[in-house]
Amino acid sequence: MDKQTIIDISFMREALKEAEVASKLGEVPVGAVIVVDNSIIARGHNLRELTGDPTAHAEIVAIRKAAEVRKHWRLTDMTLYVTLEPCPMCAGAIVQARIDRLVFGAYDPKSGAAGSLMNILQDKRLNHQLEVTAGILADDCGKILKDFFKDRR
After folding, report:
1. Pick from 54, 97, 109, 63: which is nearest to 82 by CA?
2. What is the largest CA-CA distance in the chain?
3. How many Å separate Cα 59 from the centre of its chain?
4. From the centroid of its chain, how far is CA 17?
5. Could you give the angle at the alpha carbon of 28 between the alpha carbons of 25 and 32, nearest 5°?
6. Residues belonging to the active site
7. Do residues 58 and 44 touch, judged by C-beta distance below 8 A?
8. C-beta separation of 121 from 87 below 8 A
9. Which of 33, 60, 106, 147 lies 20 to 30 A from 68 at CA?
């Protein structure tokens, strides 16, 4: 296993911790962290149910916090780790924030916009493309979602 993969696994474990927080709140368990220079500067988890905000996905929550920390909307030189492949809304926000790299865990065959249904993040027609690494701790990231929905059916 190379050094970058080891780093990616470590930060994905942190994103999974955020997903666990979401699950305990009754939210769909998706978690995210944003990293710069191997340090987490922002964390987020789904908050749609608690806030009534349809845009309160883990990625958007983390992006807003990272922009506050940076005091700017351009989040270049940052990596976003998220437990589930971003939807089209989140993928668009990632592009707009100019994040350099995305690492996600589980694929989302129903609404994934990083390769499953479409690939907004690497679309050459857009003004920004980023590096994408998929499938980091995919089994763990998928399990927390499966368990959450199994308990509700």
Report:
1. 63
2. 43
3. 5
4. 13
5. 90
6. 59
7. yes
8. no
9. 106
